[in-house]
Design goal:
The chain has 699 residues and is α+β, with helices and mostly antiparallel strands. Among the domains are: 51 residues, no CATH class; 233 residues, no CATH class; 72 residues, SH3 type barrels; 86 residues, 2-Layer Sandwich (Alpha-Beta Plaits). It contains 21 helices and 8 strands. The protein has a 5-stranded antiparallel sheet. A 3-stranded antiparallel sheet has the order 6-8-7, with helices on one face. Strand 1 and strand 2 form a beta hairpin. Helix 5 packs antiparallel against helix 7 and helix 13 runs antiparallel to helix 15. The longest helix is centred in the N-terminal third of the chain and has 41 residues. It starts with a helix and ends in an 8-residue tail after the last helix.
Length: 699
């Protein structure tokens, strides 16, 4: 049914012009172009055969042969070849296209008048600058208040930084609203409007970079600087960063404007590349200028300056050649560590506790929050770099997820390994920072005995927990990495269990040491900083590992003792200590008088401001402990805080001896008594002389 109707319509269409020609007395009018095309189409043999029903059945489309799969290197080299051919075609026609675009813009400006066009551009830029100036003037007092506010705490620094960013955004926003608003109102021709819009957007981007550099580097204001650096370094880099932003945005504005003027994409990309070459030359010059100047910080070495210069040349060489698959890894390898280092320093500087610290210690995470933000920023930078590499290599995220193709499988393994590494690094850094923070806080002395014991226990247990967690993270990370590359880890886990049993039998002493150490710590037998005696070794506990303890003797020697050989522990640093003093007085000494003297000396020592904090109970007399050959042995005792009894002992010995001498208490000393009964005087004298020691021989 369809074909007869189509044939009838075709006949009517052909008959109408014929009838018109027969009926018209004058010359026939020219047919429209559409009618002529329809007539030519109906006259085609293929259409005639179809209308008559004699058209042959269409042949089945040929199935193209499957091309061999190419990896990203092959695709990359193919892109380099295409880029080379395109560049060879672009360079000869670039001057002509640029001249034609500028001629079109000049023709538009000439029609409206160059004076009017220049006046419109001046109004466009001036309005933005005027509104920005009014904003800065209106907020001058508030800006002074913000810049002069305190920065002693983390909260104050974060609040001040947020207000500074808001003021910068307000200034840029006022310029943007005014300039873009006037651009919408001015009756500019199409080409001039497109060029002006892109120039204004580039100026806005430049001003954003300018304010960002002022906040990050803050020349002349070290207290407001986000990235810590000496003033000389800030004064060196700030004008160069501004010049970098100016050249960059100028190149972007010119390249985008050429695209509006009808210049082809390869030509305006080539113009933009010329500006980036200028940036590269400037960067190389700045690197060597930095090496030649002494700014109070270590200067770059000759090898470092050469490597950075070669790196920049390689970047632009790969870009010019179109080898994006090589350019992307070069950018990531050079800029990612630099960005991570700057972010770490900025975060640790802003979130520090107290005033800034010079040296590398200033860049250690001061808190768990700083560690979380620092490693979180590192995580974001690594993820962004990974996606940048995938895009440069022509691998989509869908292909990576689906695992289609050889390149996507390799990329999936690399991404998985990078994710495992970064996530484990993030978690371990948080845990390590938290443990180090607790250990550092536990170092502070406390007047509360219970709190002091708790802190000592933390100083003892937390380092062991840190070592155990580090081992767990390392083992789990390695297992997950092996699983990512396709290794079946089930046999490894089973083999590790069997190896663990074998090692347990073969290393019984090591297992004994580890288990003994665990029970010593669970029993709270000692803590770091306590003075203990273990067998023949004694000293202060300095540190310990999973299997041994280190004791520092008071004379400086260090004992390293396995826990399994430690044996009974005598802890001399817990709660209190009783020290006893021993004196020998002559026979017949008045003990009541001695008791009064000791009580008086004990009261004097108790009230001594240097010794009073160390006393728990004063010095007192215990009485006669023994009768020796020389006299009566008396003992004195006092109770003091652990480790502080030695100073009291020394002072007590001196004070008691002086008090005994002042009050006529005689300390016993060796004497010889000779009794000669019923002997004449001459014999008694001879016996006495015989008892005396022989005289020393003359030298």
């Amino acid at each position: 049914m369809r074909r007869p109707i189509a044939a009838l319509l075709a006949a009517l269409i052909l008959a109408v012009p014929a009838a018109a020609r027969e009926a018209a007395p004058a010359a026939p009018a020219a047919l429209p172009a559409e009618v002529e095309q329809l007539r030519a189409l109906l006259a085609s043999p293929v259409v005639q055969d179809w209308l008559s029903g004699t058209a042959a059945a269409p042949a089945a489309p040929a199935v193209p042969e499957a091309e061999p799969e190419q990896d990203f290197l092959d695709r990359g080299f193919a892109r380099v070849a295409r880029h080379r051919d395109r560049l060879a075609e672009t360079i000869p026609r670039a001057p002509g296209e640029i001249a034609a675009g500028l001629a079109a813009l000049g023709h538009e400006a000439a029609e409206r008048g160059w004076a009017v066009t220049i006046l419109m551009v001046a109004v466009l830029v001036g309005s933005g600058l005027f509104v920005e100036w009014r904003f800065l003037r209106a907020t001058r007092r508030f800006r002074k208040h913000v810049l002069g506010s305190a920065e002693d705490t983390v909260t104050e620094r974060l609040g001040k930084l947020a207000l500074r960013i808001m003021l910068a955004l307000g200034a840029v926003g006022s310029f943007s609203l005014a300039s873009l608003g006037v651009l919408m109102l001015l009756p500019l021709p199409p080409l001039a409007f497109g060029v002006a819009a892109r120039v204004i957007l580039s100026v806005i981007a430049f001003r954003v970079l300018l304010y960002a550099f002022r906040i990050l580097v803050a020349p002349g204001a070290p207290e407001r600087r986000v990235i810590p650096m000496p003033d000389a370094v800030a004064d060196f880099w700030f004008p160069r960063l501004v010049a970098f932003a100016g050249v960059l945005m100028t190149g972007v504005a010119i390249a985008q404007s050429l695209s509006v003027l009808g210049v082809s994409l390869p030509v305006h990309l080539m113009v933009g590349f010329a500006f980036f070459v200028i940036i590269g030359i400037l960067n190389i010059a700045w690197i060597w200028q930095r090496r030649a100047r002494d700014l109070g910080t270590p200067q770059p070495t000759l090898a470092g300056a050469v490597l950075w210069s070669v790196y920049i040349v390689l970047l632009f060489a790969t870009w010019l050649s179109g080898a994006l698959f090589l350019l992307a890894p070069l950018l990531v390898a050079g800029l990612l560590p630099l960005a991570i280092g700057l972010v770490n320093r900025a975060v640790n500087h802003i979130l520090r506790e107290g005033p800034p610290v010079e040296g590398e210690a200033a860049y250690r995470p001061p808190s768990v929050l700083a560690a979380a933000i620092e490693r979180g920023a590192r995580l974001v930078l690594v993820i962004a770099s990974a996606f940048f590499l995938l895009r440069a290599w022509g691998i989509t995220l869908d292909e990576v997820v689906a695992g289609e193709g050889r390149d996507s499988v390799i990329a999936r393994v690399i991404l998985y390994l990078a994710a495992v590494l970064v996530i484990f690094d993030f978690a371990w850094h948080l845990i390590r920072t938290a443990i180090d923070t607790w250990v550092e806080r536990a170092q502070d002395p406390s007047t509360d005995p219970d709190e002091a014991r708790r802190r000592a226990r933390l100083r003892t247990l937390l380092p062991i927990l840190r070592n155990v967690l580090q081992g767990i993270f390392a083992v789990v990370g390695v297992m997950m990495g092996l699983a990512a590359v396709g290794v079946d880890i089930a046999p490894l886990i089973a083999g590790a269990g069997i190896a663990g049993v074998a090692i347990g039998f073969g290393a019984q002493n090591m297992v004994k040491d580890i288990i003994s150490g665990m029970f010593y710590l669970l029993d709270d037998a000692f803590r770091v900083g306590e003075y203990i005696v273990a067998g023949n070794a004694k000293g202060t506990v300095e540190s310990f590992s999973l299997r041994s303890i280190k004791l520092r003797h008071h004379r400086g020697a260090v004992y390293t003792i396995p826990f399994g050989s430690l044996g009974a522990i005598q802890n001399l640093s817990r709660d209190w200590v009783i020290d006893k003093l021993e004196f020998t007085v002559a026979f017949g000494t008045d003990m009541a008088k001695v008791k009064k003297i000791v009580k008086k000396v004990g009261a004097a020592l108790w009230e001594d401001p240097d010794l009073a904090p160390s006393f728990i109970q004063p010095l007192k007399l215990q009485g006669v402990d023994a009768i020796a050959e020389r006299g009566l042995v008396i003992k004195l005792k006092f109770m003091a805080k652990p480790g502080e009894q030695f100073m009291i002992r020394r002072r007590a010995y001196v004070a008691v001896e002086e008090a005994f001498l002042e009050n006529g208490i005689e300390l016993a000393f060796p004497t010889v008594r000779v009794r000669a009964e019923d002997l004449p005087p001459e014999a008694a004298a001879a016996a006495a002389r015989a008892a005396l020691p022989p005289p020393a021989a003359a030298s």
